[in-house]
Amino acid sequence: MLRSWEMKFILDPAANDSSLYLKITQMIIAEIMNGRLKPLAVMPGSRELATILKVNRKTVVLSYNELIDQGWLVTENRRGTFVTETLPLHNLNSAEGRHKLVEMNVESNSIDTPLDKILPALIHLNLSDVTTDVRLLPYEIFSRSYRRALVTSTRQNLLKPSDARGNLNLRESIADMLNMEKGFKLTHENICLVSGIQMGIFVAARVITNPKACIIFENLTYQSTRETFKSCGASIMDVGIDEDGILVDEIEKICKVQLIQAVFVTLMHQFPTQVKLSAERRAKLLWLANRYDFIIIENDHNFEYNFSTTPIFPISSQDTNGKSLYIGSLTGSLAPGFNIGYMVANTSIINSCAHELSLIDSQRNVAQEISLSELIKSGEIKRHMRRMTKVYRDRRDCFKDLLHDELKDWISFTLPENGLAFWIKIQNDMYITDLIIEAKTQGLHFEVTPYISDDLNSEAIRVGFAPLNNAEMKEAVKRLKSAIINVIFKKSQLTAI
Q1: 420, 318: one domain
Q2: Domain, as residue range, for 437
Q3: CA–CA separation, 339 vs 385, rounded Å?
Q4: Which residues are bridge partners to 82 per DSSP?
Q5: Is there a smaller number of Cβ atoms within 10 Å at the N or the C end of the chain?
Q6: Ramachandran region of residue 86, left (φ > 0), alpha (ψ -120 to 50) or beta?
Q7: What residue spans of 216-315 are helical by DSSP H?
């Protein structure tokens, strides 16, 4: 792989032959720790580095092998050697890992020096629920597809979008996918492409909202979604949820006394609690939409990660009267950089969505749309989703066991059947904000998305497991346990005072 600039290294001239490979290893680790070599940075080839350092190539190969074994570097056939994206903090917590730090003479005053002092730039482990593990993406397959799409679109002068609804082939591919996977009966005319779910929500708010509109939300949901509809002039009403999802009987009571424009739901794995809207409530909600003439807006984020054996079809797939608007995304199947979402509705609503979209987002990534259409039709995305579902099921089960073994005295949770996060309820009257602040000092990163309505408090937190492998999850839970204990201790100190 080509680099824009040649990386310069200077080896300690006092290095002796017997420890030369360790000196090179130490040098590279130091460059990673100080941020000069960033995650996913391309390393020089062994011959190139040997020439730069004026050493034997076999010495560089030995050093690279050591760094790969420890988890600092990764190698890919025909692509090269890279700094790993998730650095091996868990290795440094072990006695063996600390011994290697001392053996390689990494600067520290003591093997008891805290890791955040030794590695100030490397303390974060990602417990976000908004991303998958990008290390598992089949880059070579996807990049070849994108290159072909870019060449094709350039030669045929297709880079300028001609349809506000998006590329025809991709809309056809998504229609086929949803018909097969989610029970729809669609054509491309029922689909409008958008740049991710949030864009779809904004367009939906623009189309659905009128000056008298009242939109019903689950009382725990995306706060940004509420704000989106408010910005378009809607008034908001909240309805509670339980283990079977939103309280549909409460919606019926509201409909009897007030005009409702739409109900916004996340049905398969509710955000943030992960509960599933029961079949009975889905059927009744659709009946209410027909009876009281409102639109059901469904946000089906991460629909592809279903770990149960029973398929779940959206309410929209059963809608025959144009009372639904379904918003989904391919981002969860791929990676955050692939910002492709879609809206599904009757042609009247879709045409209105396309008009609104043309006013705010006329520059589409046509090459990306062509590439994704090819990947769907060739079966590559389906194969990738199948592999990832197995990986994330295993990670979910591992995370469940770790939470139970390490944190059962302080938390409770239900094993999620869908999605990539746990809804963890905290005991001991602990403030979530205190826990998040303390967890940050432990090197844990949460995607702290507001999802609580103004008149509610929550003693729970949404924790993602997808970005971490099993060893990283073990370290993350260990740190979370430490954070919980520290918060409890600090609270007891304040109580004593």
Answers
A1: no
A2: 389-496
A3: 17
A4: 42, 74
A5: C
A6: beta
A7: 223-231, 248-255, 279-292
Please report the sign of the dihedral spanned by the C-alpha atoms of residue 251, residue 254, residue 255, residue 260: negative
CB-based contact 322:349 (threshold 8 Å): yes
Query: Mean pLDDT throughout 376-392?
Result: 89
Would residue 204 count as lying in a domain?
A: yes
CA proximity to 314, closest of 293, 342, 333, 336: 342
Taking the C-alpha atoms of residue 170 and residue 46, their distance in angstroms, rounded to an integer, is 43
Angle between helices 139-155 and 366-377 (to 10 degrees): 120
First to last CA, the chain: 61
263 bridge partner residues: 216, 296
- The Cβ of residue 295 has, within 10 Å, a number of other Cβ atoms equal to 22
Domain's final residue, options 357, 382, 407: 382
Over residues 311-356, the pLDDT tens digits come to: 778 999 999 999 999 999 887 667 666 778 999 999 999 999 999 9
> Are 184 and 103 part of one and the same domain?
no
* CB neighbours of residue 110 within 10 Å: 10
Question: At residue 287, what are phi and psi to the nearest 5 degrees?
Answer: -60, -40
Q: Please check whether residue 98 lies inside any domain of the structure.
A: yes
Rounded mean pLDDT, 376-401: 91
SS3 125: strand
